Amino acid sequence: MNIQSNIAVMEYDEQGDLVIRIPRHLARQYDADRIAFAIESVLHQPVTQQAEHGWDNDPLLDLISRFEADVSDGSQRHDKYLYLDRMP
């Protein structure tokens, strides 16, 4: 019984190298050379460093002072308010 797989499988061999198995019918359908070129082009792109976001760029800071509450001691009794008096 020959069952065609419709997904590519990624696994590692004994040396730790990544092996990508693409079903033959998919490789033929999407042209194996194009698939290999796409993989190679991704591997040759420089890895971009993510910029470190300091507090100045933190989007959560935009939320400060946007909301109001009747609670004036939230920093001291936050557990009580979060857990609604269910704490022992």
List keywords for this structure.
single chain; 88 residues; alpha+beta; two-stranded antiparallel ribbon; 3 helices; 2 strands; 28% helix; elongated
Descriptive notes:
With 88 residues, this protein is of the alpha+beta class. It has a domain of 35 residues. Helix content is 28%, strand content 9%. The protein has a two-stranded antiparallel sheet with strand order 1-2. The longest helix has 12 residues.
Summed up:
The chain has helices spanning 24-30, 32-43, 78-83; strands spanning 9-12, 18-21.
Q: Topology, please?
A:
Blueprint: E1 9-12, E2 18-21, H1 24-30, H2 32-43, H3 78-83
Antiparallel strand pairs: 1-2
Number of helices: 3
Largest sheet: 2 strands, antiparallel
Overall average residue pLDDT:
80
Beta-strand residue percentage: 5-15%
> How much is the radius of gyration in Å?
27 Å
Structural class: alpha+beta
Low-pLDDT stretches = none
Principal-axes geometry comes out as: elongated
Number of strands: 2
Question: How much helicity do the residues have?
Answer: 25-40%
Instruction: Give the neighbour order of strands across the main sheet.
Output: 1-2
End-to-end span in angstroms?
Answer: 62 Å
